[in-house]
Amino acid sequence: MFLSVVIPTYNRLPILEKCLRALESQRLAAPISNYEVVVVDDGSTDDTVAWLGRHQADLPHVRLVQQDHGGPAEGRNRGVDHARGDVIVFIDSDLVVTEDFLLSHANQLNQSWQERGDRLCFTYGAVINTANFEDPTSEPHKLRDLSWAYFATGNVAIDREVLERSGLFDTRFRLYGWEDLELGERLRQMGVVLVRCPAAVGYHWHPPLSLEQVPRLIAVEGSGPRWVWSSTKNTPPGGCGSSFNSPSSTGCSGSY
């Protein structure tokens, strides 16, 4: 099993560095034969691209792909296009994973494929939110970290052929969150099932909300649901829980 971890990023260098160093420290065993980390820079204006160039020797699994600023949906699709693996793992650039992260996804996928007799499933790992930038993995698991999301790109792994058959992400979504909700609904309609994988743990750096952020968050949340409702042909969306909730209220990925 060759895993491609696809990470779109935009101006997130400090936490991206922690994310990538954690991915370079993975413990490997069967069924994993190899892995890569495809970082798609979405037109960052910080030092992300230059820093990755300076640290190529420290990050042997990382491959950089660049695009003009087009949003996370476009970035994830481009990452899949450039990926070499037969399994795609999606995480956000502000997620710091444990050393058994990839192996946990691989083992659970392999077991589920054998039990089912097909590959129509994806694994969904655990996401623990933390505001502790210096030591994110010290955060304990909390009740509010639980999510009812169906398919959220903060921590999922899926067979590449199944993903490509779904049509990938709808690039009309240029803001955060809703693109994975809509794709999750299409996967559900294909009969692709969610398999929980609590051993694949990622710590999501989630700094406290400031009052200055509220107006933009209201605007972002208001722009998303209408797309989802129309794109699923009036089927009540279920990608972020059984009711029509927003990404922020269900724990779906809200940053990239």
Task: Describe the overall structure.
With 256 residues, the chain is an alpha/beta fold. It has one domain: Spore Coat Polysaccharide Biosynthesis Protein SpsA, Chain A (Alpha-Beta Complex), CATH 3.90.550.10. It contains 9 helices and 8 strands. The protein has helices at residues 13-23, 48-54, 72-82, 101-116, 160-166, 178-189, 214-223, 225-231, 247-250, and strands at 2-9, 34-41, 62-66, 87-91, 95-97, 121-130, 155-159, 193-205. Strands 3-2-1-4-7-6-8-5 form an 8-stranded mixed β-sheet. Helix 2 links the parallel strand 2 (34-41) and strand 3 (62-66). Helix 6 runs parallel beside helix 8. The longest helix has 16 residues, at 101-116. The model is unreliable at 225-255 (pLDDT under 50).
Order of helices and strands: EHEHEHEEHEEHHEHHH
| Total count of strands | 8
Spans of at least 5 consecutive residues whose pLDDT stays below 50 are: 225-255
Mean pLDDT: 82
Give the count of structural domains: 1
Radius of gyration: 17 Å
Distance between the termini: 26 Å
Any idea what the shape is?
globular
In CATH terms, what is the fold-level topology? Spore Coat Polysaccharide Biosynthesis Protein SpsA, Chain A
Report the structural category. alpha/beta
Helix share, percent? 25-40%
Number of helices: 9
Please summarize the sheet with the most strands.
Answer: 8 strands, mixed
Strand order of the largest sheet: 3-2-1-4-7-6-8-5
Q: Give the amount of beta strand, in percent.
A: 15-25%
Please give the CATH architecture: Alpha-Beta Complex
